[in-house]
Design goal:
This protein is of the alpha/beta class. The protein is built from twelve helices and 23 strands. The protein has three domains: about 40 residues; about 210 residues, Rossmann fold (3-Layer(aba) Sandwich), CATH 3.40.50; about 170 residues, Ribosomal Protein S5, domain 2. The termini are far apart. The structure holds thymidine-5'-diphosphate and magnesium ion.
């Protein structure tokens, strides 16, 4: 077959294509991101001739999917019970967050359970990996390191050695020599992933790929791959905090809302089964501007501290800064507090944060956030044994959210005696902890000051 070559221009941020150079991407609005790419039609059509076979719906998926435990329980929880044979999983995150460390620990555990692992290290030399391995106590004979960038070469090694699990660290350093473009460009990253996907399905080898993302989620990377792979996990958290979170944002074989919580220590990452105690441990005396939220992440309730600081502003437009909470949510809660509860934040800078480097996106954060803000503004502490959860509508009404019972139980376990929630909730009080209902934001903030 004669390869037909076609030149296209592709945005390195979002992957949009155009027939000619474009100064500003029409899709994502970024400037100067278009790079020339040569698409060879043989790559796209070479495999379409293989005999296609239809499968009856009655037989499809009849055998339950076999799972291979990763040996890291918190990761298994995120994956929905372990790695599915032949699946392709993308692990994204900022550089230095712990992706290589986690996968090395997975490689060790999987190898110990008798499955061969091929660790393709494009970023670091085997010696560097070796040093990290010493640190996390990984020394399995069944883990092979392969310093290789060419995915074609990786595929040949996989065909010959037949490992059960392949780890690609990272997709940004992988390249396909059939394609133009430097490693890390959108075209290369996509072509390599597509090739690894075919390999995973054809050979039944479970493949884990690492992808770097920057804080803005920019650069050619995981974002453009999300739709191609079976599962996408993101490593979040702050490099400066001990807690790291692995969150599933897509999972074809399990829930996409689970999280795994890890702590980075001297000897690698360890799972934190019950993080509540650690997350509120610094709250030993009642100070203003702090409220405890009973959050639910995935299927697990946990207590987190929401902090607020309100100070006179020296700026013409006072600051509204949120860490770990969406800024839009903060602005809305401040607006509702002003309009419905008679508090005024005029001329005040407002900073809010979730302690421990966590990110909370649940609407149930509204009520504890309102408590922390009211407490900071009035300089009156929220009682130490009071926690809260609930969504606040624009009318100032406190709305019920799901999992009230589980939240109440978790709060009780960690020393909370009262949990403030929507009036309409009907969770049975436990021995340690009772539910305090509030109808409006005004009623709720009446509890502080
Ligand atoms: P790494 O896995 O190399 O990050 P990534 O692959 O996501 O870029 O982890 C890097 C950080 O973790 C590094 O700053 C050192 C730290 N670290 C520990 O604190 N303890 C350990 O046992 C290991 C292996 C790393
Ligand atoms: Mg790494």
């Amino acid at each position: 077959m004669v390869a037909k070559e076609r030149i296209t221009w592709r945005c390195q941020t979002c992957g949009a294509g155009a027939p000619r150079w474009v100064g500003r991407c029409g899709e994502c609005g970024e400037f100067g991101t278009y790079v020339e790419e040569v698409e060879s039609s043989t790559v796209l059509t070479a495999r379409s001739a293989s005999a296609a076979q239809a499968v009856s719906l009655a037989h499809a998926g009849a055998q339950s999917t076999a799972r291979l435990p990763t040996g890291v329980p918190e990761l298994d929880r995120v994956l929905g019970g372990g790695l599915v044979k032949g699946s392709l999983v993308l692990l994204g995150g900022e550089p230095g967050i712990g992706k290589s460390t986690l996968l090395l620990q997975v490689a060790q555990a999987v190898a110990e359970s008798g499955t061969g692992v091929l660790y393709v290290c494009g970023e670091e030399s085997p010696d560097q990996i070796g040093l990290r391995a010493r640190r996390v106590g990984a020394d399995a004979e069944a883990v092979s390191l392969l310093p290789e960038l060419d995915v074609g070469a990786v595929e040949s090694v996989v065909r010959a050695a037949k490992p059960g699990v392949v780890i690609i660290d990272s997709i940004q350093t992988a390249f396909d020599p059939d394609l133009a473009g430097a490693p890390g460009s959108v075209g290369q990253v996509r072509a390599c992933t597509a090739r690894l996907m075919r390999m995973a399905k054809e050979l039944g080898v479970t493949t884990l790929i690492v992808g770097h993302v920057t804080k803005e989620g920019a650069i050619a990377g995981p974002r453009v791959l999300e739709h191609m792979v079976d599962a996408v996990l993101y490593f979040e958290g702050d490099r400066d905090h001990a807690f790291r979170i692995v969150r599933a944002v897509k999972n074809r074989f399990g829930s996409a809302s689970e999280i795994g919580i890890f702590e980075m220590g001297e000897h690698g990452l360890s799972g934190v089964g019950s993080p509540s105690a650690g997350l509120i441990s610094e709250r030993t005396e009642a100070v203003s501007g702090s409220a405890v939220m009973v959050a639910v992440e995935g299927s697990r309730p946990l207590l987190v501290e929401i902090q607020a600081l309100v100070t006179p502003s020296y700026l013409p437009t006072p600051r509204r800064l949120a860490t770990g909470i969406e800024t839009g949510r903060l602005l809305q809660v401040v607006a509702v507090l002003e309009r419905r509860a008679g508090l005024s934040f005029a001329g005040q800078d407002v900073h809010v944060a979730v302690a421990g480097g966590l990110r909370i996106s649940e609407p149930a954060v509204d009520l504890p956030l309102a408590l922390a803000l009211a407490s900071a503004l009035r300089d009156v502490a929220v009682p130490l044994d009071l926690a809260a959860f609930g969504e606040i509508g624009l009318t100032g009404h406190v709305r019920a959210v799901a999992h009230a019972e589980a939240r109440l139980r978790e709060a009780g376990r960690f020393g909370m005696r009262r949990v403030l929630g929507a009036q309409s909730l009907s969770a049975p009080a436990t021995e340690e902890c009772q539910l305090v209902g509030a109808n409006t934001i005004q009623e709720a903030v009446g509890l502080v000051g």
